[in-house]
């Protein structure tokens, strides 16, 4: 007889690196989800921008089941058809000519940073090893990527950290220019900072970084783990900006909920990584390849990308309207279906309380630091689900303003 599971068991059995919500989801369909008690939620969190097509999408289920009946895993001593098809799909859809598959965004960024050091070492010498990243960035939780992410709260307890990583101010080209030089092997940047507060880069900033990297023979790495696979209304955000990187990391929505990450690059850069220079046991497995291939086929269409833009306008219109009455937010910002609501100064640090109030009202949503509530729903979310979710969000904000979060 199986044991009955409760939220309390997390506190008893799990390493306490998370503080999950007090309820346990057990079933979901599209943009609706139900917990153990049968309570319904509208999902504006999207698994942290992962569930690109919502929950239990029938085409993704079919792809997984079909592949599960054929071949699950062989390891990197062999290749497989689904992953090669996915590689060609990504190459045809982007600037890339070479792909490396892994299991997560952190692994994709780790591979990108290792590639940059290797490329510079082979072509310019060992002295060219500096990496420029940005304050308030987030690139993952490995020691290398957490050091590149410019948030000391995530890295300071794990010192000594990998050296020769400097942090400039995001969207400040003068700050970046002061750090980028002939010793720089790479600049890594998010086209829109997600965890750092849902802050889009300016076109001039990214264009300036491209020019600085060209001038100093440094690679430009775009971390598109959160902004990729249709999230901004373009397949990848670099297309929105018209600035092409040398290396791009992608994960999250790529598998629509199945773990997969990838690093994309050009043939010129990728050739430096020979046999044995990098690898992963699970990366590029057939199950992930089959599901991600179906995700790409469904997301990379004019209809889906247009829906992202239409739903963006719906969010912005309705959020602006509710804020006229509540006066809780100073601005709403973002691209596509990655949107942040910035709290007014008198409510600074209270984003978590609003998210907790939202859960009470039957809405799952995210925060991005203490001052920003974040919306990252499925790309195919319906007009009615957005309206219902924002109705619940309004009630949550009213609950917070009345002094209650639960």
Automatic annotation (TrEMBL):
The keyword Transferase applies. GO terms for molecular function: identical protein binding; N2-acetyl-L-ornithine:2-oxoglutarate 5-aminotransferase activity; pyridoxal phosphate binding; succinyldiaminopimelate transaminase activity. Pyridoxal 5'-phosphate binds at residues 105-106, 138, 223-226, 281. Its cofactor is pyridoxal 5'-phosphate. Its main location: cytoplasm. N(2)-acetyl-L-ornithine binds at residues 141, 280. It is an enzyme of class 2 (transferase). Homodimer. Involved in both the arginine and lysine biosynthetic pathways. PANTHER family: AMINOTRANSFERASE CLASS III, SUCCINYLORNITHINE TRANSAMINASE. This is Acetylornithine/succinyldiaminopimelate aminotransferase. It comes from Siccibacter turicensis.
């Amino acid at each position: 007889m199986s044991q009955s599971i409760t939220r309390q068991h997390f506190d008893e059995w799990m390493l306490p690196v998370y503080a999950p919500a007090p309820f346990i989801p057990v079933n979901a369909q599209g943009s609706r989800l139900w917990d153990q008690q049968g309570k319904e939620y509208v999902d504006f969190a999207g698994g942290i921008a992962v569930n690109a097509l919502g929950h239990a999408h029938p085409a993704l289920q079919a792809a997984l089941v079909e592949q599960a009946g054929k071949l699950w895993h062989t390891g990197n001593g062999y290749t497989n058809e689904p992953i090669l098809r996915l590689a060609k799909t990504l190459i045809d859809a982007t600037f890339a000519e070479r792909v490396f598959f892994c299991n997560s965004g952190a692994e994709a960024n780790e591979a990108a940073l290792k590639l940059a050091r290797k490329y510079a070492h082979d072509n310019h010498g060992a002295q060219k090893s500096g990496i420029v990243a940005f304050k308030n960035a987030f690139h993952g939780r490995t020691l290398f990527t957490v050091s590149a992410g410019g948030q000391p709260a995530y890295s300071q307890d794990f010192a000594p950290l990998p050296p020769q990583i400097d942090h400039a101010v995001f969207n400040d080209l003068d700050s970046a220019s002061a750090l980028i030089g002939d010793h720089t092997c790479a600049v890594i940047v998010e086209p829109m900072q997600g965890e750092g507060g849902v802050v889009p880069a300016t076109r001039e900033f990214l264009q300036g970084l491209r020019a600085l990297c060209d001038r100093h023979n440094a690679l430009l790495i775009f971390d598109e783990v959160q902004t990729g696979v249709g999230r901004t209304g373009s397949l990848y955000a670099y297309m929105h900006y018209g600035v092409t990187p040398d290396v791009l990391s992608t994960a999250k929505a790529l598998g629509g909920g199945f773990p997969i990450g990838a690093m994309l690059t050009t043939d010129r850069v990728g050739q430096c990584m020979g046999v044995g220079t990098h690898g992963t046991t699970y990366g590029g497995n057939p199950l992930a390849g089959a599901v991600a291939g179906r995700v790409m086929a469904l997301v990379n269409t004019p209809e889906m990308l247009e829906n992202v833009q239409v739903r963006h306008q719906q969010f912005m219109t309705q959020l602006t309207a509710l804020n006229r009455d509540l006066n809780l937010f100073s601005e709403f910002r973002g691209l596509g279906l990655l949107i942040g609501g910035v709290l007014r100064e008198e409510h600074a640090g209270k984003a978590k309380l609003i998210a907790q109030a939202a859960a009470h009202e039957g809405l799952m949503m995210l925060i991005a630091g203490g001052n920003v509530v974040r919306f990252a729903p499925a790309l195919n979310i319906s007009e009615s689900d957005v309206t219902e979710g924002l109705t619940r969000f309004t009630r949550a904000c009213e609950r917070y303003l009345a002094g209650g979060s639960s």
